[in-house]
Amino acid sequence: MPYLHIHNIDLHYEVVGEGYPFIFLHGLGNDCSQTMEMYKPRENIQCIYPEQKGHGLSSCDDHITFDDFTNDIIALADHLGLQEFILGGISMGAAATIHTYLQYPERIKALILIRNAWAGETMNRENANLFIALSEALKEKSPEKLKESEAYKEYLLIEEETAVSMVGFFEEPAALRYPEKFARIPVQAPFESLDALKEIKVPTLVLANRQDSIHPFHSSELIHEAIKGSVFHEIACKKADRKGYYHDLDVYINEFINSLEL
User: For residue 8, is pLDDT > 90?
Assistant: First the structure.
C-alpha cells in the first residue's frame, strides 16, 4: 500500500494501469474503494486513487479544508512526477477538483465532475445539518443520538433512504477516527461563485442523476451551464439501478477520455 508523507499527514493512494494519468477523488466519508469501483482504466490510462486526508487509510490533523485537499493533490502529483493530468471526482471529490483547477489550471488537462453536491455556495441547509448531526453523534459513537436529532428527523421526510444510510458510517473506522470532517466540509464553499467557473478553459465532463437529494441534479446543471463547452449527461440513479449506474459511468467517462488529445 503506497503512502506519501506530506503536510504532517500520511496520504494513502492506489495506482492502477499505465498511461496518461487520471487522478480520481472520492466523496465525503468514502475512500478509494468507491472510485476504484466507479471506474477501472482502459488501455493507455493510469488511474491514481488518493484517499483524501481524514478518509480511508489516510491520516488527518486538526485542519481540513478544500485548500488542504488541493495542496495534497498537487503534492501527490509532484511525487509521482506528473506535470499534467486529468482530474475528476464525485461529490466532495468533484468540489475539490474544481477548487484545484482554479488554483492550478496549468496542471490539469481535463475535468470530470460527478454528482455535484456544491454549486459554489456551501451545501444546502438540510444536507449540511444532517452531516453536522452525524459528526456529533460519531464523536459519541451513538447512532441513537443521530436518530434523535432534529436534522435526522427532518431528513427522513425529505429522503428516508438517504437519512437511514447515514447510520452506516458508524461501522466505518475513518468516520469514527475523524468525525469532524462531516461538520467542517459541508459548510465550506469550494469556489466563490458560479462566475468563477467561467475561468475553466479545459474539456469538462459533468455527470448527474436524479432521485439524489445530497447531490441535487440542479447543482450539476448549474455547473454545466457555467463552464463553457462542458459535456453533460444524466446517468442512472445508483439506488434505483446499480448496474445501469456503473454502465453509464464506464461509457461516458471512456467516451470523454477518448475524445481528448492526450
Answer: no
Nearest Cα neighbor of 252 from 8, 16, 38 is 38
**In terms of DSSP bridges, do strands 45-50 and 20-25 run parallel, antiparallel, or are they unpaired?**
parallel
What does the block give as the cell for 152? Answer: 435526522
Name the CATH superfamily housing domain 3-122+189-258: Alpha/Beta hydrolase fold, catalytic domain (3.40.50.1820)
Cell of 198: 467561467
Q: How confident is the model at residue 132 (pLDDT cuts 50, 70, 90)?
A: very high
C-alpha of 15 from chain center: 18
The predicted model scores a pTM of: 0.97
Residue 206: what are its φ and ψ, rounded to 5°?
A: -120, 125
**Radius of gyration for the alpha carbons in the chain, expressed in angstroms and rounded:** 17
**DSSP string of 45-100?**
EEEEEE--TTSTT----S---HHHHHHHHHHHHHHTT-SSEEEEEETHHHHHHHHH
